[in-house]
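Why this split exists: single-chain examples teach little about how molecules sit against one another. For that reason, every record in the complexes split bundles all components of an assembly together and asks for one structure covering all of them. Below is a record exactly as it appears in the raw files.
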Amino acid sequence: MVAAAQHPNIELMTYSEVTDVKGFIGNFKVTVKQKPKYVDWELCTGCGTCMEKCPTKKIPDEFDFGMGQRTAIHLVYPQAVPGKPYIDAAHCTKLTSGKCGICEKVCPTDSIRFNDIPVFKELEVGAIVMATGYDQFDWKSAYGEYGYGKYPDVISGLEFERLLSAGGPTGGQIKRPSDGREPKNVAFIKCVGSRDDTKGKSYCSRACCMYTAKHAYQVKTKIEDSEAYVFYMDVRTAGKSYEEFYQRALNAGAKYIRGRVSKIYPRGDKLILKSEETLLGMPIEVEADLVVLASAMVPAAGAVELAKMVGFSVDKDGWFQEAHPKLQPVETFAAGVYLAGTCQGPKDIPDTVAQASGAAVKVLGLLSKTELATEPMVSEVDVTKCSGCGLCVPICPYSAISLQEYRERGGHGHGPFTRQVAEINSSLCQGCGACLPACRTLALNLKGFTNDQLAAEVDALCL
Amino acid sequence: MSIETNAAGWEPKIIVFACNWCSYAAADLAGLNHLEYGADVRIIRTPCSGRMDPMLILRAFNRGVDGVLLSG
Amino acid sequence: MKKRVGVFVCECGTNIAATVDTVQVAEFAKTLPGVVYSTNYKYMCSDPGQDLIRKAIEEQKLEQVVVASCSPRMHEHTFRKAAAAGGLNPYMMEMVNIREQDSWVHHDKDQATTKAKSLVRMAVAKALRNKPLQVSTVPITKKALVIGGGIAGMQAALDIAEGGHQVIIVEREASIGGKMTQLDKTFPTMDCAA
């Protein structure tokens, strides 16, 4: 992380979003909105005085899924990169009611800017790597049998990570969110939202088998006299050293139960999980202090809209569509746009890193050229036939057609005059030919798939 | 007018206009998996279904094709 | 249309030849308007196969080439290069798919052969109307944008940066790191995530 921030060739634009993408491979024009941080990061030294003095201290910390608290002016987390705070406008009393402003008074470098506004920047780049990642499946709205989120001690795997983390709300001690007690029996349910056509997604989220094995192992090694129950459909450990890792969890004493949990309900301060042990063919009931759900990965919020903006497709679940699942796994159908990590589909860290390096190689290959050859099978206009009606202009999905002034020499008693004709930007044109049927004067043609050629093909097949 | 599908020796002529990026690739995939279908089907590759001019479909029918599948 | 077309029918080992009578198809091709040369060969995409195309272009003074073989999605580039090696504009090569869309999906040899002939006729008709196309060039902005600053974004950015090019990471949150920063230890090595 720090390596990325310090590299002389890398520029970070954090708290920023891409709002527009124009252009084409080798020549993209990207508009980025820098959201107001209300802190001038050029001046800010990251000393942290403002965060110490901020009186709005009890905001549930999103980073810890509300299990911890933060101030209104804050870092995403203490080791944030860049290590400079920003003001959460929704909770800052100065920005919401005009009172306070303490941070401004205590800041030794005068870097607080309550009048900060969004800044739009235009970037020119030759290649784009999509690395927008994933979000957790919203199990709370789908799984009534697990309590729709009304039991505080039923949490997701990522929340459990925060409880394990030394930098988390509990300092790395596993404690129940409800009463802060250390749990003895921890139950894990895999495939919550994954491999579930009825309530969730049909796909496997790929990382959960392994992180659940890790969680179970950590429970067994961190908590004395604990039990870790793992409810599973299958255990999928396809990866280098993965099966060995799973065995390590088993050897540590994790109890794997093959069955889907059909209901969770409270009994006293415990949670009861009703399931089936399908290997024994009998119903089973497990008493747990804490339940951890391996919730599915879903595309990050806004990913589908972003794909549309950049100009490539997503699959049925909203994952970014690769150009070919085997042969072009990091390319998209938009030339010059590459995929890295979970935005393309669920995957774990080793696969993410590998794919990211793959995407980087594609980018380097592209940027190592000085010029780019363009596919010649694009549309062309016969200006002598074009009436300049412009019907083709809005049809082009790549905005490759525009109306331009065309100068006629005149004759037959007329002097030179100008008229409008369609013009194709051959760099933007992807050769789809959607403009052809719109052309009433047959002025448009698609090189390599001309009207003449397709007609000849039809005729030949009809013989 | 009736179509005698059972008449001996009658073979329909079917032309498919398939988008290079999806349906044509899907037809390739069908081939890869050896999924058998009628041999009377002839596929014409198009760069995109958006390329399809209705005139081409009419032309095919005009020349005696029994069915046209436009896929993309 | 007095163009000289050559037709090259690939057997793809037995992938095509087991279901399509390639000799018959090549013979049939000779009867098509414009076709002055046709042949079949075991693996047209192999070096000797491509060489065969190149030599035929030179010796028969071919102006158009039709290759009946696998899907153009597979080997269009290969055969365009072969045509170019023979001195033709690469876009004067037309491919026709008699494997994925014929030999692999039918088992009746007569029907599959008939279909192959019909497809070759289609390709020849199209090839006769092929025009040389020129590849144009555009300049490249030697800078990359990475959208998202998680594991994938950081790794991609670092690799591109190490390769000597400028990279901009756009991250929606105020810190890079993504989900990774929320993780404790990670499998299978149990080292820390950040």
